[in-house]
């Protein structure tokens, strides 16, 4: 796996941006996967500005639908995602970000946001928090 | 990892369905990951009916936005996904399906749909087709 980020070449960044098919809201879903372990950490959204910033800085920036603003992952919590590589799918309407996740990805203190599943007939947490979420945001 | 699927208990299926936050269109994004290798295969969508069928049958069924119909993965191509486990994320608005992918996931004949990336300044395929896509659909 080659480390592409940050992408210094503005022309290359523009080519990638133009290959993405953003939806009617101007968004594209992004799957974040830890580049070496393969763990799927989270699914979030980017608009064109978030993707452009991610490519230019090598730090993953999403678009927060609830806050209607760029969301620089880890800006508040310190749980930064460094971009290692970025994959487009076959029709360009979904992205896979291979990242190096600092600490935990989930606001609950769990490593991955995908930590709930059906167990013994009920939806239960299948991974314990690694850190107290209060320590992520009370800084 | 426990094999949960198919889920025989209708009450358990209903609990899982009720824990999912479908969007305004009634859809939820689903990341499909090969359960043993960790490879991210594709991102697609489910509505409530697709998820209910997936849980009841143990074979992954998506919702095709272009065809506005249930999409039983592999029905045409034979490239079936058997459900091994299903994870919900922390706010219930994204799913991670751990699957056993028969053959390739991508309609281009590639193992994963996420097979394009920036290389030498251009968006290029980073994985070759394992099968001729014609053989997937000319059956």
From TrEMBL, chains A, B:
Pathway: Amino-acid biosynthesis; L-histidine biosynthesis; L-histidine from 5-phospho-alpha-D-ribose 1-diphosphate: step 3/9. Residues 42-114 form the Phosphoribosyl-AMP cyclohydrolase domain. GO terms for molecular function: phosphoribosyl-AMP cyclohydrolase activity. Pfam families: PRA-CH (PF01502). Its EC number is 3.5.4.19. Keywords: Amino-acid biosynthesis, Cytoplasm, Histidine biosynthesis, Hydrolase, Magnesium, Metal-binding, Zinc. Its main location: cytoplasm. Binds 1 zinc ion per subunit. It comes from the Bacteria. Its cofactor is Zn(2+); Mg(2+). Zn(2+) binds at residues 90, 106, 113. It catalyses: 1-(5-phospho-beta-D-ribosyl)-5'-AMP + H2O = 1-(5-phospho-beta-D-ribosyl)-5-[(5-phospho-beta-D-ribosylamino)methylideneamino]imidazole-4-carboxamide. It is found in: Cytoplasm. Mg(2+) binds at residues 89, 91, 93. InterPro entries: PRA-CH, PRib_AMP_CycHydrolase_dom, PRib_AMP_CycHydrolase_sf. Belongs to the PRA-CH family. Catalyzes the hydrolysis of the adenine ring of phosphoribosyl-AMP. PANTHER family: HISTIDINE BIOSYNTHESIS BIFUNCTIONAL PROTEIN (PTHR42945), HISTIDINE BIOSYNTHESIS BIFUNCTIONAL PROTEIN HIS7 (PTHR42945:SF1). Homodimer. NCBIfam families: PRK00051.1 (NF000768). This is Phosphoribosyl-AMP cyclohydrolase. It comes from Caldovatus aquaticus. The lineage of its organism: Bacteria, Pseudomonadati, Pseudomonadota, Alphaproteobacteria, Acetobacterales. The gene is hisI.
């Amino acid at each position: 796996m080659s480390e592409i980020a940050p992408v210094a070449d503005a022309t290359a960044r523009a080519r990638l941006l133009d290959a993405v098919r953003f939806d009617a809201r101007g968004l594209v879903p992004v799957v974040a996967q830890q580049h070496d372990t393969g763990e799927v950490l989270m699914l979030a959204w980017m608009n064109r500005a978030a993707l452009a910033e991610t490519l230019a800085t090598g730090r993953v920036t999403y678009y927060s639908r609830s806050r209607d603003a760029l969301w620089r992952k880890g800006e508040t919590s310190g749980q930064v995602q460094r971009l290692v590589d970025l994959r487009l799918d076959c029709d360009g309407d979904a992205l896979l970000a291979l990242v190096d996740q600092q600490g935990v990805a989930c606001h609950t203190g769990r490593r991955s946001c995908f930590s709930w599943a059906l167990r013994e007939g009920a939806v239960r947490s299948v991974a314990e928090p690694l850190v107290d979420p209060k320590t992520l945001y009370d800084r």
